[in-house]
């Protein structure tokens, strides 16, 4: 599978996982009644789609985990900022830069 396609699949997985988590966050802390149920269902569908997406391809997910963690971190921070108005703090940015650096090392270091 071409690297670009793998990257897009991992990005889609990060969007589904972080998006599903954010649906549950909304259901538990911002919604009530039928809206709570609908947000919970949206979260469940999103997380199930994430699970199917990352487990359907026959890839060695171990080496790709570094890239996935980076994508998940970036997507989660974007969702936190855009949906919940939670801008990343300096510690999050510093720690996140270490996550990104680790993903780069895992991606480019040829053994």
Spatial extent as radius of gyration: 16 Å
Low-confidence stretches: none
Largest pleated sheet: none
Which class best fits the helix and strand makeup? mainly alpha
What's the total helix number? 4
Alpha-carbon distance between the termini?
20 Å
- Written as H for each helix and E for each strand, in order along the chain, the element string is HHHH
Approximate helicity band? over 70%
Relevant terms:
single chain; 111 residues; mainly alpha; 4 helices; 84% helix
Explain this structure to me?
This protein is mainly α. It has one domain (3-108). Helices cover 84% and strands 0% of the residues. It is built from 4 helices and no strands. It is flat and about 55 Å long. 18% of the residues are buried. The model has no long low-confidence stretch (mean pLDDT 94).
């Amino acid at each position: 599978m071409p690297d670009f396609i793998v990257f897009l699949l991992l990005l889609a997985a990060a969007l589904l996982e972080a998006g599903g988590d954010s649906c549950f966050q909304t259901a538990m802390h911002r919604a009530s009644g039928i809206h709570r149920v609908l947000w919970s269902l949206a979260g469940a569908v999103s997380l199930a789609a994430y699970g199917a997406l990352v487990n359907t391809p026959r890839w060695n997910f171990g080496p790709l985990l570094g890239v996935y963690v980076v994508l998940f971190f970036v997507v989660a921070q974007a969702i936190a900022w855009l949906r919940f108005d939670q801008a990343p703090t300096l510690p999050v940015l510093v720690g996140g830069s270490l996550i990104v650096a680790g993903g780069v090392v895992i991606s480019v270091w040829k053994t």
